[in-house]
Design goal:
about 240 residues; alpha+beta; Porin; 2 domains; eight-stranded antiparallel beta barrel; 3 helices; 11 strands
């Protein structure tokens, strides 16, 4: 995607400058005009997202969906875009957001509840195509995401014919987890992942969809042969300013 962006910009500029005849000059001028009419102003936005989330385990996915349920989440954050060249609408996006995720598995006589709280630091390359006097824009993006896990817990009440007395386990403290619950290995505090998505702006209103998938594992319990990565889909609305 990044290569295509640069190829498009380079090809358009080269045609505009180096054309050999008047017809080519006219055609390249039209292409250059299309890019030159697009805004290269910096931007920022405030967003709110609904997040379907998933812990993707290497083994026994069905078992872990019940033991550590995480299904839904939400994100609130800000992101800004800085133009990289005044000849094309190519941007570096950076931001910060808070993300909360939660899930519940119910069984006869009890339930397991899990929650996870994180900070995300996205760093994306975006290409903003604008139309209608820059009132409408389409912005595909690709980039990296850094996730800092702040807190996470699992609460277990009467479950599987055993009574836990509303036991609460810290997912990041191996001294408070139990063999009967999460296991003795704690979750990891930091993951690196990849962002991929597209946003649509209509004047001040923003609508976007994207996905973040981790390169590094949030759980890596080698002794028990259990490994998991975290995946987050984002359906976003926001305000441009």
């Amino acid at each position: 995607m990044t290569v295509c962006m640069f190829a498009f910009v380079t090809n358009t500029s080269a045609q505009f400058v180096n054309t050999g005849n008047s017809q080519k000059l006219k055609n390249s001028s039209n292409s250059g005009s299309l890019l030159s009419n697009m805004t290269t102003d910096n931007y920022a936005r405030l967003t709110f997202s609904y997040n379907p989330v998933k812990l993707k385990w290497e083994h026994d996915q069905d078992m872990w969906d019940k033991t550590l349920p995480l299904k839904h989440g939400f994100t609130v954050g800000v992101i800004g875009g800085v133009n990289l060249t005044n000849k094309a609408p190519l941007y570096l996006e950076y931001g910060l957001n808070y993300q909360g995720a939660f899930g519940k598995y119910k069984a006869d006589g009890g339930a397991i509840r899990t929650n996870l709280h994180s900070l995300n630091i996205p760093l994306n390359l975006a290409f903003r195509l604008s139309f209608n006097d820059n009132k409408i824009s389409i912005t595909p993006y690709i980039g990296l995401n850094g996730r800092i896990n702040l807190a996470g817990s699992q609460k277990v009440d009467y479950f599987d014919n055993r009574y836990y007395d509303d036991q609460k386990l810290d997912l990041f403290d191996d001294s408070t987890t139990s063999e009967e619950g999460v296991g003795k290995q704690a979750f990891k505090r930091f993951q690196i992942g990849m962002n991929l998505g597209v946003g649509f702006s209509f004047s001040a209103f923003y609508l976007g969809v994207g996905h973040t998938f981790d390169f590094t594992k949030i759980a890596n319990w080698a002794e028990a042969d259990y490994e998991a990565k975290y995946g987050v889909t984002s359906i976003s609305i926001g305000v441009n300013f």
